[in-house]
Structure formats: C-alpha cells, structure tokens
C-alpha cells in the first residue's frame, strides 16, 4: 500500500475506486515528455552512512572474521554496489514504460496541491526485484560450487523471492483483493519449504526447562508451518505499514542494516562453522536488498518521484523472512519487526472486518498548512499523529523511521541482557 490513488484501464469489482473520481489535470502530457526528478543522492549518502558505518566497522576491524568468510562477503558487497548504480540507471527508463501502460497514481497526501496533480509512475519495485535477483545469481559464480551444501537452499530462497516478485507485480496490475494477498506468500514459500534441510528444533528458554522437561524440542513439520506463517507476516506487515513517501523502503533499509549488524556479530562471536556459515548466507541476500533499496529510496524519498507498488513491499518482506529462516534468527527478526507487529495489532479489528475498513487508511491532509492529521483508522501512522499531533509527511516519515531504528536497538539490548539467562 502506498499514499496513492491508482489509475488504470481496468476496474476491479471487489476493489471499487475511491470516492474522488473526477478527471484531474496533470503536468505530463505523454510518457515521451516525462522527465523524472533527479535522485536525492545526498539524502541516500546520509542514510547509508548512518546505517552502514557500524556494520562495516564490525566486519572489517572489530571482529577477526576468517578470510574464507570475509572474502565472499566483500565480493557480495561489491556486486551489491554495482546493483545500486544499475538500479539508479534503470528506474527512469522503467518509469517511462509503466506510464505508457497507464500504471501511475496520484499522491493522496498531496491532494489539493500542484504536486497532487502529478502522475507518479507506479510499481517500480519490479526494477529493484530484478536487479536483486541478477546480483544474487551472479554471486553464485564467486562463492558456491556444484557440491556446495548451501547451493540448494540458496536457489530455493531465490525461487521463493522471485515467485513473490511475480505475485506482487500481478497484484499491482490486477489490484488483487487483500484477502487473496494474505495467501500469496504461502504459495511463494513452497520452494523454500520443500528444499529446507535444516534443523526443525527450538531451544527451550532456561526458565521453562524445569516445566517442559526438555532443553531442545523437535517440532518436525510444525516448524515448517511456522516458517510459512513467518513469511506471510513479514510480507504483509511491510505492505500495511505504509502510506508515506519513503516509509516502505525506509523501514526495509533500517531492518536490513540491523540484520547485517546482527549477522556479523554472530559470526564474530561464534566458533561453530555451521552457525557462522548460516549468518554469512543471510548477509549474501541482505546486502543486495539494502543496496538496491537505497537506489530506489533516492527516487521515493519525499517528495516521491515514483511509487514502489506492492511488488516492492512483498519482495522486501519475503527476502527478510527468508534470511531470518535460513539464518536461524527468526525470534530476533520478529523483534526487529516490532513496529510492524504493533501496526498489525492496531489494524487487526479493521482487517478482520470487526470495524469498517476504508480502502485507504491514510491521515487527513490539509493543503493550506501541508500537515497531516491522524484519523480513527487503526494504523501506527494515524495513532502516532493522534498522540504527538499534526506533522508534515516528511517529518512523520523520519519520526517513524527513528522509531524503527530504536526498536532494532532495543532488540540488541534485549539480547545482551538476556544472554546466558534466557537461552
């Protein structure tokens, strides 16, 4: 979901168009005349410096990471950097193509202003997804051999992510009802579930061992059900915590940075080669995700020149679910997703049909002041505005991203204080 009003040549009977349907003038007469605003590279430089500096310090200086692991991680980082620049170049090209197919929207949070009358290209998340897959596939040449134990799971992970990109793009084109969206990740996880050969056990928290009578519990097939449910949650939670320029991608890069820091900390602290390889595996997929997402954020930061569409949100959620599952840190991942969990709980009455759910659960925009006011809809965006008062869209997005970063920091503190006692 994004802060947009979709315009297409096909109307979905289960998703009626919004109340405002008048023809709007636009500043674009044809796709050929379209000129995309330049990327906000200075903003990306600041964000990437804040998020990546600690990770690079831990990887290169703080921990004595074996060259056998550090080398492929750095190669992957180099390929990811190439992916960043390729994504930057492809987005303006793809924007013109989607406009030709009338895949654009109007920014609802700017309605009543000149910016609200501009056609904004939509579904540009397909560019991020394609570049991500190409980088991840090319990386296999540098790291995996034909008899590699991780090759099957790596390709299964890419198959699940690719499947989710396809389904997300189908949703952008056909405007699939949200009840169907909930089921789509279940199908996309099938390649991963079928190829998964890792453990299906969980470690019982030490305070509960005396009650359960076991230190390790084998869940068997129930563990795979848990994996599928985690993928469904991560995929949809990014999608519903949205509606502001830069929020979807912003929360993704913050969580991705936390995942990278967590992985390198576990690699540095562990002596078990299997655990170290699992966390390195997670890094191999997270670095391309972060690099390509930062390139998209350069165009999606306020004021947004493109919309990412559901293609990006479901792709990002599935990728993070995959790295959490195969890296064996799903509990930590859920704490990183704390704002998304809170947003889901706030949204549950409307999603369950207990409370009336409008098509766009967005704040109310005042064109005279340029400020957003929270509505009664159950989203974290609206609740934050109701508690802290009216804010501009850019300011609100920054506040929510800071909250996301604080949630990730809380996770690291929690793991530190519970280490040795909880597990």
Automatic annotation (TrEMBL):
Keywords, sorted A to Z: Membrane, Transferase, Transmembrane, Transmembrane helix
Residue ranges of the region described as Disordered: 1-31
Main localization, broad class: membrane
Family annotation (InterPro entries): Glycosyl_transferase_4, GPT
Cell location: Membrane
GO molecular function terms listed in the Swiss-Prot or TrEMBL record: phosphotransferase activity, for other substituted phosphate groups
PANTHER family assigned to the protein according to its UniProt record, in alphabetical order: UDP-N-ACETYLGLUCOSAMINE--DOLICHYL-PHOSPHATE N-ACETYLGLUCOSAMINEPHOSPHOTRANSFERASE
Name of the protein in its database record: UDP-N-acetylglucosamine--dolichyl-phosphate N-acetylglucosaminephosphotransferase
Native source organism of the sequence: Eruca vesicaria subsp. sativa (Garden rocket)
């Amino acid at each position: 979901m994004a802060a947009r009003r979709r315009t297409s040549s096909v109307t979905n009977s289960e998703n009626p168009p919004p109340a405002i349907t008048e023809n709007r003038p636009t500043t674009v007469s044809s796709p050929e005349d379209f000129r995309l605003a330049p990327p906000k590279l200075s903003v990306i430089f600041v964000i990437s410096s804040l998020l990546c500096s600690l990770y690079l310090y831990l990887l290169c200086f703080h921990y004595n990471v074996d060259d056998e692991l550090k080398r492929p991680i750095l190669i992957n980082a180099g390929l990811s950097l190439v992916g960043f620049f390729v994504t930057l170049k492809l987005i303006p090209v793809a924007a013109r193509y989607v406009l030709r197919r009338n895949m654009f929207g109007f920014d609802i949070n700017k309605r009543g202003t000149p910016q609200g009358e501009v056609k904004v290209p939509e579904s540009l998340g397909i560019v991020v997804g394609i570049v991500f897959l190409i980088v991840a596939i090319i990386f296999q040449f540098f790291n995996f051999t034909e008899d590699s134990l991780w090759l099957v799971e790596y390709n299964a992970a890419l198959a699940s992510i690719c499947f989710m990109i396809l389904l997300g793009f189908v949703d952008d084109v056909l405007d699939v009802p949200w009840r169907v969206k909930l089921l789509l990740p279940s199908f996309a996880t099938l390649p991963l579930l079928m190829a998964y050969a890792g453990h299906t056990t969980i470690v019982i928290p030490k305070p509960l061992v005396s009650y359960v009578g076991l230190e390790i519990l084998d869940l068997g097939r129930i563990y795979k059900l848990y994996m599928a449910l985690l993928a469904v949650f991560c995929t949809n939670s990014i999608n519903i915590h949205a509606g502001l320029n830069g929020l979807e991608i912003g929360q993704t890069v913050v969580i991705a940075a936390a995942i990278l820091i967590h992985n390198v900390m576990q690699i540095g602290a562990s002596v078990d080669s299997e655990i170290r390889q699992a966390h390195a595996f997670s890094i191999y997929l997270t670095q391309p995700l972060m690099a390509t997402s930062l390139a998209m954020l350069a165009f999606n930061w306020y004021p947004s020149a493109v919309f990412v569409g559901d293609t990006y949100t479901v792709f990002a959620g599935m990728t993070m679910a995959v790295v959490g599952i195969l890296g064996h840190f799903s509990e930590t991942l859920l704490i990183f997703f704390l704002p998304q969990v809170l947003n889901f709980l706030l949204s549950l009455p409307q999603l369950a049909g207990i409370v009336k759910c409008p098509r766009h659960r967005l704040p109310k925009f005042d064109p005279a002041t340029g400020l957003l006011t929270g509505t009664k809809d159950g989203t974290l965006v609206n609740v934050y505005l109701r508690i802290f008062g009216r804010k501009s869209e850019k300011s609100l997005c920054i506040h929510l991203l800071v909250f996301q970063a604080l949630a990730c920091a809380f996770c690291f503190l929690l793991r530190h204080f519970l280490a040795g006692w909880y597990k």
